[in-house]
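Batch manifest, entry 17 of 40.
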Amino acid sequence: MHWLTVAAREVKLGFRNPWAYSFMALFSFFSLALLLIQSQSQMSGYTSSTGTMLNLILYLLPLMTLLLGSFSVTAEKEEGGWELLSTYSISTSSYLLGKYGGLAVVLFAIVGFGYGFSGIIGAWIGKSFAADTFLLFLAFSAGLILLFLALAIGVGTLSKNRWQALTYGVGIWFFLIIGWPTLLLSVLGFLPYLWIKPALVGLTFLNPAELIRIFMIVKMGGGTVFGAEYYQWVDWIQQPSGTPIFIAVCLAWIGVCLGAAIFGWERRRYRG
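Output type: structure tokens
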């Protein structure tokens, strides 16, 4: 199982990376700050406080994942790690899947420490998350990590060095997180009325951050904030089959991104 060997190696390298500890401190600090400033003794369901927490995670975690993931892949190219590994009988798929698995463990540890630290301090001063809300935050963070890490592996595959990875990573983050609402309104404004709802559904499935954001807000009981255009989304997410369908879509997203990264790496490996 070559990919397990690569994953174990990636975990060791990840915990030696100072970037990982910088992001851990940043995530822990803001998680604790938001927990301290909210007025309720326990955050539950979708409120202004939990909505702010979701936005913090949505802004910080994808960027952190894109940078750590893409830098890890491009560092292998710059420092010659891949040339050494390629002398062994290891396939491209095992290598990139091992990278994906190892980095996921590192990022889960960062997020777990951040939530654990803020949770302990919050409980000590009498402010904490409700158990169901806390689990939804964990699921939201895990989903963002897994989806954007697949994108990060693709970015690292396309990039020749860390500067390119930084440029591409920040560009993708800005497009999917910051610029998405404006771009969505611009595109939908040019479409006939009957095309708006199908286009909205299709475009939402193309943005993993928007997809998982909608899912989590509905699960937290805040589906009414989206308005009538998203009524069908609220309906299918709340059904018993909603969660399995959502997981299947996320797995398809991850599979497509990793498959494209493996294909691109194979072409460079044999064509130069």
